[in-house]
Amino acid sequence: MPRRRIAAALASAAIGLTLLTGCSDDVSCGLDQCTVTVQRETNASVSVLGVEAKFVSADENTVTLDVGGEQIQLTKGQQAVEVGGLSFTLSSVTQDAVQFEVAR
């Protein structure tokens, strides 16, 4: 019997891992900073450091996000934008995705 439980647990873990790796958005966090990558799709969103950040639009150097109901514009190479005690900085913009940093 214990072997069946272990096999079932391993199968469940493998399915959960497959679902996680199939996710198109990516959040990687350290102690007080996260790197976020979201797909350039309408309504793509991610929860990071306690706030919801939604992708609104982008061109080659500027990204507009909705952060906690407030729209902000991030420009590549520019200073961070402060919202709700967090700093948002644009890292990169490609045809498929945008990457930004969020820090406390």
Outline the fold blueprint.
Layout: H1 2-21, E1 26-29, E2 33-39, E3 45-48, E4 51-58, E5 62-67, E6 70-75, E7 81-83, E8 86-93, E9 97-103
Antiparallel strand pairs: 1-2, 2-9, 3-4, 4-5, 5-6, 7-8, 8-9
- Sketch the topology as an H/E string, one letter per element: HEEEEEEEEE
The CATH topology is what?
Answer: Tick-borne Encephalitis virus Glycoprotein, domain 1
Low-confidence sequence ranges: 1-24
Strand elements, count: 9
Helix content: 10-25%
Largest sheet: 5 strands, antiparallel
At CATH level 2, the architecture is Sandwich
Q: How many separate domains?
A: 1
Question: Keywords, please?
Answer:
single chain; 104 residues; alpha+beta; Tick-borne Encephalitis virus Glycoprotein, domain 1; five-stranded antiparallel beta sheet; four-stranded antiparallel beta sheet; 1 helix; globular; disordered N terminus
In short:
The protein is of the alpha+beta class. It is 19% helix and 51% strand. The chain has one domain: Tick-borne Encephalitis virus Glycoprotein, domain 1 (Sandwich), CATH 2.60.98.
